[in-house]
Design goal:
- The protein has helices at 43-51, 79-83, 105-115, 129-138, 150-170, 195-207, 214-221, 226-247; strands spanning 4-9, 15-21, 28-31, 55-59, 93-96, 119-124, 142-145, 174-177, 182-184, 190-192, 212-213, 254-257, 261-264, 268-270.
- The chain has 271 residues and is of the alpha/beta class.
- It has two domains: 4-170, Response regulator (Rossmann fold, 3-Layer(aba) Sandwich), CATH 3.40.50.2300; 174-270, Winged helix-like DNA-binding domain superfamily/Winged helix DNA-binding domain (Arc Repressor Mutant, subunit A, Orthogonal Bundle), CATH 1.10.10.
- Strand 6, helix 4 (129-138) and strand 7 (142-145) form a beta-alpha-beta unit.
- The termini are far apart.
- The mean pLDDT is 82.
Length: 271
């Protein structure tokens, strides 16, 4: 099947193509090739994944092929700036190497795990039992040692994907006690909320997993100027996230939906 080709333009002007192999059920894996590897090398893997019910989007990003930029290890691609944003944490699955430019692979696993409960598969050439223990303890779901076949990666992705779906269905809910201004995480740890935090969490409780628009939150917080309120809103959400992160190691399911609003992507009930 011929993939759909989407032309992607980054904010800094870098252009490339996104090759999308859709699946019947709508699941989609975003595949970012290694430095210097063209997306066409993953065509057979993408077709196999799509046939198994998991769509795949191959992105030639700053490397080769359709990309108009050429990646070199001496170039700072500002990955850390990207990781400071909310956008990288909206995916349901990550396939990572450990040898990465700009950030250590194990550190990246920890960063992802603090933000999301998504699946994390490591495919790396680093050997040794200490490496395996390091990445699993950091939060990876599975570790494959290179060289691997596309079929092995496909089986691993499907296995971890099953775990994600099972966990999502059986996850213990977060509990909000509005009277006491306390949020209880699934591990039992409690978070003392400010008055603003409580109003936000009550808003997410009413939404029951749906996205709450920025305009609705602005109105709730009494913001009138859109120009000033965007920065204020971002700071408010950031403080709430950090307050929860300091209280519990459980991944915070509060995610931004770009230019739309915010979503609490976990069961949330009233205590």
């Amino acid at each position: 099947m011929t993939p759909e080709t989407l032309h992607v333009l980054a904010p800094d002007g870098a252009a490339a193509e996104l090759l999308v192999h859709p699946s019947a059920n709508g699941d989609l894996v975003y595949w970012l090739p290694a430095l210097g590897v063209t997306a066409r090398h993953y065509a057979r893997f993408a077709e196999s994944m799509a046939a198994a019910g998991i769509g795949l989007a191959r992105h030639e990003w700053r490397g080769a092929g359709s990309s108009d930029r050429r990646a070199r290890r001496g170039v700072d691609w500002r990955y850390r700036d990207l990781l400071a944003d909310v956008a990288p944490y909206r995916f349901d699955f990550y396939v990572l190497d450990l040898m990465l430019p700009g950030v250590d692979g194990t550190e990246l696993i920890r960063i992802i795990r603090k933000r999301t409960q998504a699946g994390v598969l490591i495919v790396s050439g680093r050997l040794g039992p200490e490496v395996f223990a390091e990445v699993i303890n950091a939060g990876a779901d599975m570790y494959l040692t290179k060289p691997v076949t596309f079929e092995q990666v496909e089986l691993a992705v499907r296995a971890v994907h099953r775990r994600i779906m099972t966990t999502a269905k059986t996850a213990t809910a977060w509990k909000l006690d509005s009277r006491r201004s306390v949020l209880t995480a699934p591990d039992g740890q409690t978070v003392d909320l400010s008055a603003t935090d409580r109003m936000l969490m009550e808003c997410f409780l009413q939404a029951q997993g749906e996205t709450v628009s920025r305009d609705h939150i602005r109105s709730l917080l009494g913001h009138t100027s859109a120009a000033d309120s965007d920065n204020s809103l971002h700071a408010t959400i950031y403080r709430l996230r950090r307050r929860i992160e300091r209280a519990t190691p459980v991944a915070v399911p509060l995610q931004s939906q770009q230019k739309v609003g915010y979503q609490f992507r976990a069961p949330l009930i009233a205590a």
